[in-house]
Amino acid sequence: MIWSSKKGLDANEFFEQVKDAKVVLGFQEPDSASQSNMSPVEAAQAWQIFLEPLRARGIRLGSPAITSTDTGLLWMSEFLEELNKIDCHIDFLVLHWYGRSVDNFIDWITLAHTRFGDEYPIWITEFACASFDSNQVISQEEVNAFMQESITKLESLSWIERYAWFGFDFGEANAANNLFESNGRLTQLGQSYIHDI
User: What gap in Å lies between CA 15 and CA 13, rounded to an integer?
Assistant: First the structure.
């Protein structure tokens, strides 16, 4: 993944780093001020320099990963419009989602799929049963049920090409999401995830 283009990234150095890649993902939550924080125009310009040239090498390109908000969806719409103006392309759509309801999760990714059409398969590169309110500790039972039900639903959707649970060092309130112990061993949730997928 190219996290952002804002930190003096050199194109030739980047091309060398990804020379053996089969897939490269776009920017990290550019619609969020606390992440790569790029406007759709900035991201499209960077895409043209850093990512579009990789297509000639046969590398698949995943869109920037947006947050699961209306702002994220609007950002993606504007970004795809900007790409179209400069004849650049994505090969698949990348989404992130955090929350506590499987129905809300499936509803949101379905909304993204509907909004951007059947043109793009979807990769969900981060998702988990999480709360960003540090006073709301999520139980292991809730996380286990969320994981099991969400994976079953994801597996039933033909337009979901890949997905990945985000589960390491979530902090105390969301610790039940962790796939690894601090010593690097799999948690029970991690073992379940490996066996379920």
Answer: 6
